[in-house]
Amino acid sequence: MISIQKPEDLISVSLYNIFSFRKTDSEFYDLVSNWNKKIVLYVKPFYELTIIFEDDSIKFQIGSTDKYHLKFIIELQTFLDLAYGRIGLVSAVASGKLKIKKKYKLGTLLRFYKIFFNSLDKVVSNPVNNYYELKTDSR
Hints:
Nonspecific Lipid-transfer Protein, Chain A; six-stranded mixed beta sheet; about 40% helix; globular
Protein backbone atom coordinates (compact mmCIF):
# COMPACT_ATOMS: atom_id res chain seq x y z
CA MET A 1 0.00 0.00 0.00
CA ILE A 2 1.14 3.53 -0.74
CA SER A 3 1.63 5.93 2.17
CA ILE A 4 0.66 9.54 1.55
CA GLN A 5 1.93 12.35 3.76
CA LYS A 6 -0.69 14.26 5.71
CA PRO A 7 -1.26 17.62 4.02
CA GLU A 8 -0.38 20.97 5.55
CA ASP A 9 -1.68 23.40 2.94
CA LEU A 10 -4.54 23.96 0.50
CA ILE A 11 -3.10 22.37 -2.64
CA SER A 12 -1.64 19.35 -0.87
CA VAL A 13 -5.03 18.72 0.80
CA SER A 14 -6.58 18.51 -2.66
CA LEU A 15 -3.81 16.27 -3.97
CA TYR A 16 -4.01 14.09 -0.86
CA ASN A 17 -7.72 13.51 -1.49
CA ILE A 18 -7.15 12.78 -5.18
CA PHE A 19 -4.32 10.31 -4.52
CA SER A 20 -6.07 8.71 -1.51
CA PHE A 21 -8.97 7.69 -3.71
CA ARG A 22 -6.71 5.21 -5.55
CA LYS A 23 -4.38 4.35 -2.66
CA THR A 24 -5.46 0.69 -2.54
CA ASP A 25 -5.67 0.26 -6.33
CA SER A 26 -3.06 -2.23 -7.58
CA GLU A 27 -2.55 -0.34 -10.86
CA PHE A 28 -1.87 2.85 -8.90
CA TYR A 29 0.57 0.97 -6.65
CA ASP A 30 2.48 -0.34 -9.66
CA LEU A 31 2.75 3.18 -11.10
CA VAL A 32 3.88 4.88 -7.89
CA SER A 33 6.08 2.30 -6.14
CA ASN A 34 9.82 2.84 -6.59
CA TRP A 35 9.30 5.67 -9.08
CA ASN A 36 11.50 8.21 -7.21
CA LYS A 37 10.61 11.41 -9.07
CA LYS A 38 9.99 15.03 -8.07
CA ILE A 39 7.17 16.84 -9.84
CA VAL A 40 6.56 20.56 -9.29
CA LEU A 41 2.98 21.78 -9.64
CA TYR A 42 2.46 25.54 -9.80
CA VAL A 43 -1.23 26.42 -9.69
CA LYS A 44 -1.49 30.15 -10.37
CA PRO A 45 -2.29 32.40 -8.49
CA PHE A 46 -1.27 30.26 -5.51
CA TYR A 47 2.20 28.78 -5.03
CA GLU A 48 4.50 26.00 -6.15
CA LEU A 49 4.24 22.58 -4.57
CA THR A 50 6.71 19.74 -5.06
CA ILE A 51 5.22 16.25 -5.14
CA ILE A 52 7.86 13.71 -4.16
CA PHE A 53 7.35 10.10 -5.19
CA GLU A 54 9.83 8.06 -3.17
CA ASP A 55 9.77 4.28 -2.78
CA ASP A 56 6.20 3.51 -1.62
CA SER A 57 5.29 6.99 -0.44
CA ILE A 58 4.06 10.32 -1.73
CA LYS A 59 5.23 13.47 0.05
CA PHE A 60 4.45 17.15 -0.40
CA GLN A 61 6.84 20.06 -0.01
CA ILE A 62 5.83 23.70 -0.36
CA GLY A 63 8.01 25.48 -2.88
CA SER A 64 10.07 24.31 -5.80
CA THR A 65 13.28 22.34 -6.04
CA ASP A 66 16.08 22.73 -8.57
CA LYS A 67 16.26 18.98 -9.19
CA TYR A 68 12.74 18.36 -10.47
CA HIS A 69 11.85 15.91 -13.23
CA LEU A 70 8.75 17.77 -14.48
CA LYS A 71 7.20 21.13 -13.74
CA PHE A 72 3.59 22.02 -14.50
CA ILE A 73 2.53 25.68 -14.59
CA ILE A 74 -1.24 26.02 -14.80
CA GLU A 75 -3.94 28.58 -14.06
CA LEU A 76 -6.62 27.51 -11.58
CA GLN A 77 -9.39 27.80 -14.19
CA THR A 78 -7.47 25.61 -16.65
CA PHE A 79 -6.91 23.08 -13.87
CA LEU A 80 -10.66 22.91 -13.27
CA ASP A 81 -11.33 22.70 -17.03
CA LEU A 82 -8.98 19.70 -17.26
CA ALA A 83 -10.64 18.07 -14.25
CA TYR A 84 -14.14 18.37 -15.67
CA GLY A 85 -13.15 17.43 -19.21
CA ARG A 86 -13.94 20.81 -20.75
CA ILE A 87 -10.45 20.87 -22.27
CA GLY A 88 -8.01 18.08 -23.07
CA LEU A 89 -4.41 17.86 -21.93
CA VAL A 90 -3.00 18.21 -25.46
CA SER A 91 -5.15 21.24 -26.28
CA ALA A 92 -4.24 22.87 -22.95
CA VAL A 93 -0.54 22.52 -23.77
CA ALA A 94 -1.01 23.60 -27.40
CA SER A 95 -2.95 26.73 -26.40
CA GLY A 96 -0.36 27.69 -23.78
CA LYS A 97 -2.76 27.35 -20.85
CA LEU A 98 -0.63 24.55 -19.42
CA LYS A 99 3.14 24.87 -19.53
CA ILE A 100 5.31 21.84 -18.91
CA LYS A 101 9.03 22.19 -18.30
CA LYS A 102 11.23 19.21 -19.19
CA LYS A 103 8.42 17.73 -21.28
CA TYR A 104 11.03 15.99 -23.42
CA LYS A 105 11.07 13.37 -20.65
CA LEU A 106 8.13 11.69 -22.29
CA GLY A 107 8.16 8.55 -20.13
CA THR A 108 7.96 10.59 -16.93
CA LEU A 109 5.23 12.78 -18.41
CA LEU A 110 3.09 9.82 -19.46
CA ARG A 111 3.51 8.06 -16.13
CA PHE A 112 2.53 11.18 -14.18
CA TYR A 113 -0.46 11.52 -16.49
CA LYS A 114 -1.56 7.99 -15.58
CA ILE A 115 -1.03 8.68 -11.87
CA PHE A 116 -2.52 12.15 -11.53
CA PHE A 117 -4.89 12.92 -14.39
CA ASN A 118 -6.45 9.45 -14.46
CA SER A 119 -7.04 9.72 -10.69
CA LEU A 120 -8.51 13.17 -11.19
CA ASP A 121 -10.88 11.86 -13.88
CA LYS A 122 -12.10 9.08 -11.58
CA VAL A 123 -12.70 11.46 -8.68
CA VAL A 124 -14.59 13.94 -10.86
CA SER A 125 -16.76 11.22 -12.39
CA ASN A 126 -18.51 10.71 -9.04
CA PRO A 127 -17.30 13.37 -6.58
CA VAL A 128 -19.72 12.62 -3.76
CA ASN A 129 -18.70 8.98 -3.46
CA ASN A 130 -15.05 9.32 -4.43
CA TYR A 131 -13.90 12.55 -2.84
CA TYR A 132 -16.04 13.60 0.09
CA GLU A 133 -16.77 11.56 3.16
CA LEU A 134 -20.15 12.00 4.76
CA LYS A 135 -19.92 12.40 8.51
CA THR A 136 -22.87 10.62 10.02
CA ASP A 137 -22.08 11.59 13.59
CA SER A 138 -22.18 15.37 13.01
CA ARG A 139 -25.31 17.45 13.43
